[in-house]
Amino acid sequence: MNDHGAETDFSDKMSYGDYLDLDRVLSAQRPLSDAPDEMLFIIQHQTSELWMKLLLGELDNARRAIQEDRLPEAFKMLARVTRIMEQLNNQWDVLRTMTPSDYTTFRDALGKSSGFQSLQYRLIEYALGNRNLAMMKPHAHVPTAAAALQAELARPSLYQVVLGFAARHGFDLPASKVGLPAQAPHQQDDQIRAIWAQVYRDTTANWSLYQLAEKLVDLEDYFRRWRFNHVTTVERVIGFKRGTGGTGGVDYLKKMLAVELFPELWHVRTEL
Ligand code: HEM
Ligand SMILES: N[C@@H](CC(=O)c1ccccc1NC=O)C(=O)O
What we know:
The chain is built from 13 helices and no strands. The chain has one domain: Methane Monooxygenase Hydroxylase, Chain G, domain 1 (Up-down Bundle).
C-alpha cells in the first residue's frame, strides 16, 4: 500500500475535521420535509451566510483602515469584499436548477421564515449605508441580534468613512454629513456629488480618493448583481406569489433594485 507518507494516526492529534469542526458544521442541515431539494436550499443559504460572515469582517477592517488613512490595506480588503460578492453571485446558478415543482414540495414547511430576516444581510446593508430602521423589527425578539444592529448603527457606514477621508484631505464637507453615524438610508447630496466631480476631473491630483471611489462603484456593481440574481431566481421559482416573509415578493424585490448605496458616485458620471 502506498500512502505517500501521509499521516494516518490521529488518535492523539488534531485532524482536518477537528480543526474545521466539521461534526458541527455538517450536522447543522436539518430538512423539515422529505423533499430532495430542501438540502440544496439549506446548503445554499448556509454557505451564503458563511460568506456574509467573512464579508462583514472585511467591511469592518476596511472601515478601520480608511479611518486610519491606511488606504493600500483598505483597497485589498474592499477587493476581497467584491470577490466574495462575486462568489455569492455565482452560487445562484446552483439554486436555479430547482424548479417551481421542486420548491413547492417543501415551501409550506418554511412557514413565515424568509431571507428578509437574515441578520447578517441586514448588517451588510447597514454597514454599506442603507440604514432603513424598519428592517430592525424582525430582530426585536432576539436581544443579541437587536444589539448587533444597534452597534452597527452606532458606527459610521463605509460611505461615511470614505467621505470622512475626503474631509480630512482637503475637501469641504460639513461635519453634519460625515460626523455622526447615519440613522437613515443615505440620500443623494449635491455637495457630495460636487466633490466627486472634482476628484474625477483631476484624477492625478486626487489619486487616492479616485481609487477609493472606483472600489465603491465596483462593490455596488456586484451588490446590484446579487439583487438582480435574487429577484430573477425568485421570479423563476415562485412567480409573483407573496413572500413567506409577508412582502409582495418579486414586486418588493424589484423596488429594492432601485436602491442606490453610493448615489453621488453614479450621478456624477452624467457630468463628466
Ligand atoms: C428559491 C429561492 C428563494 C426564494 C423563492 C426567495 C424569495 C424571497 C422573497 C419573496 C423575499 C421577499 C421577502 C419575503 O416576503 O419573503 C426574499 C427576501 C430575501 N431573500 Fe430570498 N429567496 C430565495 C433565495 C434566497 C437565498 C439563496 C438567499 C441568500 C441568503 C436569500 C436571501 C434573501 C434576503 C437577504 C432577502 C431580503 C432582501 C431585502 O430585504 O432587500 N434568498 N427572498
Ligand atoms: N421568501 C421565500 C422563502 C425563502 O426563500 C426562504 C425561507 C427561509 C429561509 C430563507 C429563505 N430564503 C430567502 O428568502 C418564499 O417566499 O418562498
